[in-house]
TrEMBL record:
Record protein name field: Uncharacterized protein
Keyword Signal attached: no
InterPro entries cross-referenced by the UniProt entry: Bromo_WD_repeat, WD40/YVTN_repeat-like_dom_sf, WD40_repeat_dom_sf, WD40_rpt
Gene3D superfamilies: YVTN repeat-like/Quinoprotein amine dehydrogenase (2.130.10.10)
GO biological process assignments: cytoskeleton organization; regulation of cell shape; regulation of transcription by RNA polymerase II
Ranges occupied by WD repeats: 68-99
Domain of life of the native organism: Eukaryota
Length: 131
């Protein structure tokens, strides 16, 4: 029976790779792309600060690649499509914004929600032509 239990992870063998500074508040949402080469982060705005932004970082160097702008309230979640073609962000502004995963260009703004967006999840389509 003991062999069926999940074994604990030994975190003592882990080491810090890099520290990234760039948001005005602590990061509370983070996602890696499927290659592990990019990290996408969001952080809540501080009182009086304008940080309703998602930022894309190089995971190897820690350098800022680009900033995704457009939300007018706190971003609450983000999702990266399995093939890195899309990034979606949801916000307390009741909008979901969809960005090109390759160029970071805005592709769509999904409106019509009556409440705050609290979760976003991109899922693969069974038909590649209907992304």
């Amino acid at each position: 029976m003991a062999s069926l239990l999940i074994q604990p992870i030994n975190f003592t063998k882990m080491k810090k790779h890099t520290v990234i500074l760039g948001h005005l508040a602590p990061v509370f949402c983070l996602s890696f792309d499927s290659t592990g080469q990019r990290i996408i982060t969001v952080s809540p705005p501080l009182l009086g600060a304008d940080d309703d932004l998602a930022k894309i970082w190089c995971s190897r160097t820690g350098q800022l690649v680009t900033t995704l702008r457009g939300h007018h309230a706190e971003i609450t979640d983000l999702s990266v499509c399995w093939d890195n073609t899309l990034i979606a962000t949801g916000s307390l502004d009741k909008l979901v914004r969809v960005w090109c995963g390759h160029t970071s260009s805005p592709l769509a703004v999904l409106s019509g929600h009556s409440g705050h967006i609290t979760s976003v999840q991109l899922s693969p389509s069974p038909d590649d032509d209907s992304k």
